[in-house]
Amino acid sequence: MCVKMLNPQEEEYMIDTASGSCGFPIHTVFDVWKKIYTDLNIEESHLFTAEEKHPRALKYVKEKVFGIDFDKKTVRVARMLNIIAGDGHTNVLNMNSLDFERWDENLKDEDWTDTYFEGWKRLKKLRSVKNENKEFEFYNRLNLIKPVFHKNIEDFIRLSRTKEKKFPYFKSQIFKNLYFKTPKDSNELFSYSFTLKNCLKDYAGKIDKENVIFGIFKNQKLKYAVYVNLKQKKIIEAKGVCNNEIPDRDMKVVKEFVNNLGA
User: Fold this and answer.
1) C-alpha 181: how far from its chain's center?
2) Angle at 183 (CA atoms; ends 181, 184), nearest 5 degrees
3) Pick from 217, 216, 259: which is nearest to 235 by CA?
4) What's the chain's average pLDDT?
5) Residue 30 in contact with residue 6, Cβ under 8 Å?
6) What is the DSSP string of the chain?
7) Higher confidence at residue 33 or residue 134?
């Protein structure tokens, strides 16, 4: 519905600066492709296929549609969906929209350039000022921006610049109706904190071989986190979204899981 309301056109550029799995970009592409095929008097097939698209349709998706997201796994999913949809994957970039001052540092990472350089090369052509990433020329262009749900953007940027810390203990296990998983590093812990809207991010320095944090998933969604002393099998703290208490039924399962650690 949002895409239909915005009515994107073939001559417009489109960027989603928090693109996730690229729902908005993909549906924008489909909407414009329908207009292109109608203009060419070509009967459209189901657009979400890997079949070869008309050169005019490919030109649009390769040159004028962009997606940016800071989560590597989400970007991988988005790029795969775009490959299936029609080879628009090259313009889906793994970058932090809020930390644009450090975008050029990605060029020092050979793995990043191998994957994202072609898309980055197209995006930087839209800079307002050469060699600066603060402003882009998006006048008369479709710019889809979703709000970032974080109380302190400066804190968000500071944390994103923190050097990744690997954690010494990893465990992943389904126990009854819950899935328990320790974060493998500080970046994943930050992701837990961001999802649960709490201060888990501050626990990175408190995690060691004996004291760990488990993310607790229910129906494939992160619902709770528990801070545990493995040696004593003791729950130090257990909270849900916004530090709310874990419901009694699920808390009972959490306690059983902790009591069975190492068994």
Assistant:
1) 19
2) 115
3) 259
4) 83
5) no
6) -HHHHH---TTS-EEETT-TTTHHHHHHHHHHHHHHHHHTT-----SSS-SPPPHHHHHHHHHHEEEEES-HHHHHHHHHHHHHHHS-GGGEEE--GGGGGGGGGGGG-HHHHHHHHHHHHHHHTTBSSTT--S-B--TTSEEE-PPP--S-HHHHHHHHTSPP-B-S---EEEETTEEEE--SBHHHHHHHHHHHTSSGGGGGGG-SSSEEEEEEEETTEEEEEEEEETTTTEEEEEEEGGGPPPPHHHHHHHHHHHHTTT-
7) 33
Q: How far apart are CA 127 and CA 134, in angstroms?
A: 8
Instruction: Check whether 88 has a pLDDT greater than 70.
Output: no
Say if residue 25 is exposed, middle or buried (CB neighbours under 10 Å; 0-12, 13-18, 19+). Answer: buried
More confident residue, 182 or 72: 182
Per-residue model confidence (pLDDT) at position 197: 86
Q: What is the pLDDT of residue 87?
A: 59
**Structure-token pair, residue 77:** 């999913």
pLDDT of residue 150: 47
